[in-house]
Amino acid sequence: MVSVTSGVQVLDRAVLVLDTVAHAGQCSLLELQRATDLPRPTVYRIAVGLERHGLLARDTDGRFVLGHRLAAWGAAAGRGLADAARPLLARLAEETGESAQLYVREGDRRVCIAVHERPSGLRDTVPLGAVLPLDRGSGGKVLLAWAVDASRFTVSARELAAVRARGWAASVGEREAGVASVSAPVFDGSESVLAAVSVSGPIDRLGPNPGRRMSAAVAAAARDLAAALGGPVKPAPVTAR
Asked: String of b and e for 223-232 (b: at least 16 CB within 10 Å)?
């Protein structure tokens, strides 16, 4: 949840409402009131006001969800990164035969801001805009491995240290049963992790040790994206065994 305050109460409350809906996915008015601990009339006025501006909407059950205007703003904010990533994700999908994604951290979650599906056959789709956990799946662990607040999450320090040493992360059936993935970090100009490049697919195709097959290609795509954005190019990862 939002912990930063601006000193403008109505703005801080509106951001709190938006953040609550973003983390929950959908909220009834009662759930919003309980989660924000704001008076019910206040929550109602803020939520309805945000709805009129297109920042919130209602699902078929009348619960509040994020509005399309936020999606448009998010797309505009990440356009440079996503645009730079698309040809590299296309190349990665062609090289590996699997779907490729780009994730960025948003609070305590990660968001998929670019996707390229595998060329043919059975697909393992992560929808554009999907909000996923940071502590499960290779993409989340890459985003956490260099994060200053990684200790807040359930991933062990030893595991994150291994990710940093290798330069990539892999997961098998961790976020979703039957799905494996491999991810590598994209560093920005200050050598902080800006994003995670990933490939994912069924364990039947990637096998029980997907890093052995995929890590070199994924790490190369991440390095190429960092170079395209003007960030530092990190050394190649340790070969998977």
From this structure: bbbbeebebe
Domain span at residue 207?
A: 78-228
Residues 126, 206 within the same domain: yes
Residues 213 and 129 in one domain: yes
What's the rounded Cα separation, in Å, for the pair 149 and 186?
18
Kindly state the percentage of the chain with pLDDT values over 70. Answer: 87
**Whole-angstrom Cα Rg for the chain:** 19
Question: Where a domain ends, among 47, 70, 93?
Answer: 70
> Which residue reads 């968001």 in tokens?
111
Residue 235 inside a domain? The answer is: no
Contacts of 45 (CB under 8 A, 6+ apart): none
pLDDT tens digits, one per residue of 162-195:
999 999 999 998 888 888 999 999 998 777 899 9
Mention every residue, 6+ apart, whose C-beta is less than 8 A from residue 15.
2
Task: Look at residue 156 in the predicted model and tell me its pLDDT.
Answer: 94
Q: Is residue 233 part of a domain?
A: no
Q: Check: CB of residue 193 under 8 Å from CB of residue 147.
A: yes
What backbone torsions phi and psi does residue 45 show, to the nearest 5 degrees?
-60, -45
The owner of tokens 């490049």 is 197
72 membership: H or E segment, kind and range: helix 68-77
Instruction: Record the tokens describing residue 35, joined without a space.
Output: 């989660």
Is residue 143 helix, strand or coil?
helix
